[in-house]
Amino acid sequence: MLYHLFTTLREMYDLPGAGLFSFVSFRAAMSLLTSLVVGIAFGKRIIEWLQLKQVGEIVRDLGLEGQMNKQGTPTMGGLIILGAILIPTLLFADLTNVYTQLMILSTVWLGAIGFIDDYIKVFKKNKEGLAGRFKVIGQVGMGLILGAAMVWHPDIAVKELADDGTWATVRSTATTIPFIKDNHFDYAWLLSWAMEDAASYVWIVFIPLVILVVTAVSNGANLTDGIDGLATGTSAIIGMALAVLAYVSSNTVIADYLSIMYIPGSEELVVFIAAFVGACVAFLWYNAFPAQVFMGDTGSLALGGIIATFAIAIRKELLIPVLCGIFLIENLSVVIQVAWFRHTKKKHGEGRRVFLMAPLHHHYQKQNMPESKITARFWIVGILLAVVTIVTLKVR
Predict the structure, then answer these.
(1) What angle separates helix 203-224 from helix 230-250, to the nearest 10 degrees?
(2) Residues 54-96: pLDDT tens digits?
(3) How many CA atoms lie within 13 A of 313 on its CB side?
(4) Which pairing describes strands 174-176 and 184-186: parallel, antiparallel, or unpaired?
(5) What are the beta bridge partners of residue 184?
(6) Exposure pattern of 63-75 as b/e (b: 16+ CB <10 Å)?
(7) Can you tell me the distance from the alpha carbon of 325 to that of 338, in angstroms, rounded to the nearest whole number?
(8) Tell me: the pLDDT tens digits for 174-188?
(9) Separation CA 244–CA 235 (nearest Å)
């Protein structure tokens, strides 16, 4: 809103200083600072309100060290994250930009699904929360909207450097493949063997892929939110890497130098992701060990959904297995554990486990490793993965 206000004042009255709002770097910095202030300043009040409403975590005894000490810790703290993201975005981003609109939608949409789940758990005293099928339906719905927008929205396009040195606008579902010299890949190629006009039917492949990415990353963040600060810190690290990827994709000079796609309008994503990182860091102020509040599904589903939506918007979804490696391994640890248990039970009549407990961070807890050490080591791995992701821009 401030962006639109000062843009109008500059155009109509040539107000001194109003031109600052035309610089993405300034707005991103203000977005980051505002999210930190909002998250830290209002976070304590929200925690006190949650305590007043007795919105406490219901902990199941899984035999983990220090687990029962968390009983009654306020949950639904994801409201702090959502507020710290949305307020700076509404203030400093261009609200007419389609990418900004998609990011706001994904934040509210998946945050609402998580909120409903937490509400049922806390206020309805139903430990199961929202039925899994309804969560999946919500995630699929977001994936459908995002996929359809990426395929058909007139404002979503990329520009590629032509042989004559000019940028040519291209409407396609092209994406980036890491470590490959000519790192552009169009999903229409997957249908080219079956039909001539593959570009017209690429949605058949692209939209299901978007749904898979949104669902997988959202659930991955949800599974990672098992010990103090783990999901929050990991998301902040991922957010910083995404900020770099969005910035280079929105700058013609850097895009030309790196031989990557230039995505017009994606500069507004830098403003959004700055708020995202600030919100995660602000929440970590209260969520670091020992946590004063948990984000609940309100926060974790939203964080994962935001990361997935952002990566797809800047056409870096194929980098997610690297960048979101922590989320991926947490997901895989659960899948492997369940699959192996069922297989051995069917074969031997007794279920056996690969890990002491899944997701993976609980495996290390079962080995009596302190929560803070597990979190720190996962963050270190997350930082390494983020660096590798950024390096893929040049290493091919």
Answers:
(1) 140
(2) 666 666 656 566 666 677 788 899 999 999 999 999 999 999 9
(3) 34
(4) antiparallel
(5) 176
(6) ebeebeebeebbb
(7) 20
(8) 898 888 877 788 898
(9) 14
- φ, ψ of residue 253 to 5 degrees: the values are -65, -50
Distances 321 to 69, 139, 327 between C-alpha atoms, Å:
34, 19, 9
DSSP output for 46-91:
HHHHHHHTT-B------S-TTGGGGTT-B--THHHHHHHHHHHHHH
Of 1-10, 295-304, 311-320, 332-341, the poorest mean pLDDT is in 1-10
Residue 8: both structure tokens together: 């109008």
- DSSP conformation letters of 157-181: -EEEE-TTSPEEEE-S-EEE-TT-S
Cβ 244 vs Cβ 172: under 8 Å: no
Does pTM surpass 0.90? Answer: yes
| Residue 359: partners with Cβ closer than 8 Å, 6 or more residues away | 223, 224, 226, 330, 331, 333, 334
CB-facing half-sphere around the CA of 290: CA atoms within 13 A: 8
Q: State phi, psi for 176 to the nearest 5 degrees.
A: -110, 130
Half-sphere CA count of 210, side-chain side, radius 13 A: 30
Strands (E), the chain: 158-161, 167-170, 174-176, 184-186
Q: Alpha-carbon distance 250 to 129, whole Å?
A: 41
Residue 279, CA distances (Å) to 42, 227, 273, 283 in order: 12, 18, 10, 6
CA 387 to each of CA 63, 200, 269, 384, 395: distance values in angstroms, whole numbers, following the listed order = 36, 36, 20, 5, 12
Token pair for 200: 């017209």
pLDDT at 60: 62
Contact between 160 and 168 under an 8 Å Cβ cutoff? The reply is: yes
- Read off the tokens for 171: 């409407």
Residue-wise burial string across 213-222, b where 16 or more C-beta atoms lie within 10 A, e elsewhere = bbbbbbbbbb
How much is the pLDDT for 67? 60
> For residues 252 and 182, is the Cβ–Cβ distance under 8 A?
no
